[in-house]
Design a protein that fits this description.
Length: 641
């Protein structure tokens, strides 16, 4: 297949999924009342993707996640959304002709900012077209999806680091892999990343003006960490998308007092919890708002964006509840809380019951904490040893030791506290900022991983934009604020755009055939060459223990064993490595016939190539500068005395 054909077929697939999910989401949102139609693209896309994922999860639970049933789910979604197709295409055709408010300078600045945001957003789908290389994506996200796609059913995966998990996102990956391949799975995550930017644009534009929408999208798209995760088959972008959609449904409920919107928020929160345990925060947020916030209807929602020249009144003054509003009694609060939690439980509770039955811990691994092996069992070279080495390598080692991921958006995290000081002028911005801060604190207390902290990014982006946009317009007017806000948007986009461009240059041309994919993976994944040799020689007829190579699991054609945790951890293998007979017994106990050892920087090779000590027990089959492959020798039969 040519490069143009490869790119086209994947982008067409992603576009079809996006249109189907958006149309279905609009159809479902109509059930919650006309207020939910205020956002025509972002919120429906999140709702449609979640609904399709839930339908596929039901197929997996029944053991029917095999062709042609996943395709049938998309067909049913398209038919169910039939009334929305005509207005959807009409709105797509009218987007370029929509009039813009403000003066000429403000309009040109807004057009320039929108073009820059669009250009920055377009770079990430290009990165998603490369074969998957993300560590956790290859460790358990894609292996779980491949298992579901091959077996057609939802079942525990004991060979994975997480044998049972909320797998809603991986179910979507499995369907994409059945209909196309793993690149299509990455593009689905990229779709969620772009959908978050669209939802930030719509949320900010309708409440605080067009500049607030553009700033919110720019702050989200400008994060190198989020862009990298969205192109690597991680689940955090979809988690962030569902969390932001939950918050938007809560805001619509606050503004309109429509009870079905609170139920919709509960369902979206349940879907967030079905993607990752971190999504339980969304359910807690719905519960807090249902009990404490209460509906506070504002002016009727307009389907047109607010003019750029002056910010809407809701940006500076919180609209009081009308006198005709029903009293916010305690009984009413508990009733709406029960309705929202019931909607969340319908989606999320089956996952956690299944996880509890499978592992004994419904929040696995939070209650049964898995810890790394002791330091003396897995010796690690201190960072200062690397600093004494010549050349640029020490700084690379230091960066890897301190920050294993790309950095987040510096401007977003720098301005994150700003909305908390704006409570009087913009209670909505303060509420969004407080929710983001609470999520960061809770996540950091459980597992301070920068990738998990990035899920709070959309909340901070929306809150910061809700403060900066109206404040600049009120201070300088439309003409004076436009160049300043354009500069802020460009500054916010710069880190993400620069990082994605640099990463694309480093990766080279997009591999569009088998040979190109193989060459790319050999360059990007240390140790992949040895695994590829094992696949080519033995096919699927092998079981291998991968020492320090757990992220190669997805690309193994045969059975792959080996991780820091589980029944055969790396610490046990390293203890046995000094005694060849014990190592052979350990491998036999793990049920494998091959050993793959990836060489680690700063670590001694536990099984050196050519070492005669291992000859009676292991047979060297492959050795390269990155890894070695050994066959477990069958011990000779004992002779009778």
């Amino acid at each position: 297949m040519s490069l143009a054909g490869f790119v086209s077929i994947h982008l067409v697939f992603t576009g079809c999924v996006a249109l189907t999910a958006t149309a279905l989401g609009r159809r479902l949102a109509a059930l919650a009342g006309p207020a939910s139609r205020a956002e025509r693209w972002g919120l429906p896309l999140a709702l449609g993707l979640a609904a399709i994922g839930c339908g596929l999860a039901l197929l997996a639970a029944a053991g029917w996640l095999l062709p042609p049933w996943p395709l049938a789910v998309f067909a049913v979604a398209a038919v169910a959304a039939a009334p929305q197709w005509r207005p959807l295409f009409a709105e797509m055709a009218a987007l370029a002709r929509r009039p813009r408010g403000g003066g000429a300078g403000a309009t040109m600045a807004a057009v320039g900012a929108a073009a820059a945001v669009g250009a920055a957003a377009a770079a990430v789908p290009a990165l998603a077209l490369y074969p998957p290389t993300g560590f956790d994506a290859l460790l358990y996200h894609l292996p779980a999806a491949a298992r579901f796609a091959a077996n057609g059913r939802l079942a525990a995966a004991p060979e994975l680091r997480f044998p049972a998990f909320p797998w809603l996102n991986e179910i979507l990956f499995a369907a994409a892999m059945q209909l196309q391949d793993d690149v299509a799975a990455q593009l689905l995550e990229c779709l969620a990343y772009l959908g978050t930017a669209v939802l930030l644009w719509e949320m900010g534009r309708r409440r605080f003006g067009a500049w607030a929408g553009l700033l919110g999208a720019a702050l989200w798209l400008g994060s190198p960490l989020v862009a990298w995760a969205a192109a690597s088959a991680y689940v955090e972008p979809f988690e962030a998308f569902l969390l932001l959609a939950t918050v938007e449904a809560l805001l619509l409920w606050r503004e309109t007092a429509a009870p079905r919107l609170l139920v919709l928020a509960g369902a979206l929160a349940g879907c967030a919890a079905a993607v990752k345990i971190q999504g339980l925060f969304a359910i807690g947020l719905v519960a807090v708002w249902a009990l404490r916030a209460g509906p506070a209807p504002a002016e009727p929602l307009s389907r047109e964006p607010a003019p750029v020249a002056e910010p809407p009144r809701s940006a500076t003054v919180s609209a009081p509840a009308p006198a005709s509003a029903p009293p916010n009694s305690r009984r009413r609060r508990w009733r709406r809380l029960a309705a929202a939690l019931l909607a969340a439980a319908v989606v999320a509770l089956p996952w956690y019951v299944w996880i509890g039955v499978t592992t004994g811990d419904p929040f696995f691994p939070l209650l049964t904490r898995l810890v790394h092996p002791a330091a003396e069992e897995v010796p690690a070279a201190p960072v200062w040893h690397a600093l004494r080495e010549p050349g640029p390598r020490p700084w690379h080692a230091l960066r890897q030791a301190i920050w294993p991921y790309p950095p987040g958006s510096p401007l977003l995290w720098l301005l994150a506290p700003l909305p908390l000081f704006w409570r009087r002028r913009s209670p909505v911005a303060a509420s969004l900022g407080a929710a983001g801060l609470a999520l960061v604190v809770i996540t950091a207390a459980v597992h301070p991983d920068p990738r998990l902290l990035s899920v709070a990014g959309p909340l901070f982006a929306a809150a910061i934009a809700a403060v900066l946009g109206p404040w600049a317009l009120a201070r300088w007017g439309a003409a004076g604020a436009a160049p300043r806000l354009l500069a802020v948007a460009m500054l916010a986009l710069l880190p993400g755009a620069g990082y994605t461009a640099l990463l694309a240059v480093r990766r080279g041309a997009i591999p569009h055939d088998r040979a190109g994919r193989e060459s790319y993976l050999r360059r990007q994944l240390p140790g992949y060459g040895a695994l590829s040799w094992l696949n080519s020689v033995h096919g699927r007829r092998y079981a291998v223990y991968g020492l320090w190579a757990e992220n190669l699991r997805y690309y193994a054609a045969g059975r792959f064993v080996g991780d820091w945790y589980g029944a055969a951890p790396f610490a046990a293998a390293l203890r046995a490595a000094g005694r060849p007979a014990d190592l052979a017994a350990f491998l036999a106990g793990a049920g494998v016939d091959h050993l793959l050892v990836r060489r680690m920087a700063g670590q001694p090779d536990p099984v050196p190539c050519g070492d005669p000590r291992f000859a009676p027990f292991l047979r060297a089959e492959h050795c390269d500068p990155e890894a070695s492959v050994w066959a477990v020798a069958t011990p000779p039969p004992r002779l009778a005395p």
